[in-house]
């Protein structure tokens, strides 16, 4: 039975740590401005499912920590917005929160902390460019938050989250954030045309480990794009931006 901090976490078996790995974890702590009581817990936060699978699942992965971190992150940001934006309606707070805790924001923070240098991933995931994948980086960031919450408590986790999320909140309030054009387009199309945009892949180019996706979006009888991206999600965002810009024109509201 693996026992951490007086609680049972039998399924959360962290990867082993040698002296070199411990130095790497200490370097991350220094960069992030935090200190773990248990490097094992931090190491588990960096353990991707692909790494655990290649080790016959004899070690744990970071998915449960990611689940926990997502909840801690949401609570911290919601509380901060509730206490600071006292003049804003619930809908405004929800919109700000959705941008701040998004995959984009978390990946930006992860890159600033060089999380990609510390993630433990399988050889197949490594070959496919896993260290640079936005979703993987964002998930690891949530796992780190969850691990720090278990390791050092809510107050420490809250301080860590706000240190990196408040600047992202300010970006949203100052309209300097990356726009979610898929949501903006859907809202616009529903309002103006009483229908939904439809996305269609046009083609895929490049080798298997570094493909580029090309996607068009259709609104009524009109097609926009194609937008391109390294995954379907980013290509859809690009196509949605084409359509939204064309349809909204000068009346495009700040997102």
Structure description:
The C terminus is likely disordered. The protein has a three-stranded antiparallel sheet with strand order 3-4-5. Strands 1-2 form a two-stranded antiparallel ribbon. It folds into two domains: 171 residues, Ribonuclease iii, N-terminal Endonuclease Domain, Chain A, CATH 1.10.1520; 69 residues, Double Stranded RNA Binding Domain. With 255 residues, the protein is mainly alpha-helical. It has eleven helices and five strands, in the order E-E-H-H-H-H-H-H-H-H-H-H-E-E-E-H.
State the strand order across the main sheet: 3-4-5
- Sketch the topology as an H/E string, one letter per element: EEHHHHHHHHHHEEEH
Give average pLDDT, whole number: 88
Let me know the largest β-sheet. Answer: 3 strands, antiparallel
Distance between the termini: 49 Å
CATH domain fold name of the largest domain: Ribonuclease iii, N-terminal Endonuclease Domain, Chain A
Which word captures the global form? Answer: flat
User: How many beta-strand segments?
Assistant: 5
What is the subunit arrangement here? single chain
* Structural domain tally: 2
Low-pLDDT regions: 250-255
The CATH superfamily of the largest domain is identified as Ribonuclease III domain
Helix content: 55-70%
């Amino acid at each position: 039975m693996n026992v951490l901090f007086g609680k049972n976490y039998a399924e959360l078996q962290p990867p082993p740590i040698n002296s070199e790995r411990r130095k790497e974890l200490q370097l991350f702590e220094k960069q992030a401005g935090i200190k773990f009581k248990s490097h094992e817990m931090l190491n588990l936060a960096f353990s991707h499912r692909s790494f655990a699978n290649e080790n016959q699942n004899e070690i744990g992965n970071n998915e449960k920590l990611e689940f926990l971190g997502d909840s801690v992150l949401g609570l911290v940001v919601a509380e901060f917005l509730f206490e600071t934006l006292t003049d804003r309606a619930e809908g405004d707070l929800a919109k700000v929160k959705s941008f701040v805790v998004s995959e984009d924001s978390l990946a930006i923070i992860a890159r600033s902390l060089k999380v990609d240098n510390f993630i433990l991933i399988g050889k197949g995931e490594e070959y496919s460019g896993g260290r640079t994948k936005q979703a993987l980086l964002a998930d690891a960031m949530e796992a780190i938050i969850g691990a720090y919450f278990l390791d050092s408590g809510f107050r420490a986790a809250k301080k860590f989250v706000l240190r990196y999320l408040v600047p992202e909140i300010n970006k949203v309030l100052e309209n300097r954030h990356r726009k979610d054009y898929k949501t903006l387009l859907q809202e616009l199309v529903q309002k103006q045309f009483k229908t939904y945009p439809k996305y269609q892949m046009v083609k895929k180019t490049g080798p298997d480990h570094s493909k580029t996706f090309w996607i068009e979006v259709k609104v009524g009888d009109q097609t926009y794009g194609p937008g391109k991206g390294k995954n379907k999600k980013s290509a859809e965002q690009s196509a949605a931006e084409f359509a939204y810009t064309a349809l909204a024109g000068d009346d495009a509201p700040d997102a």
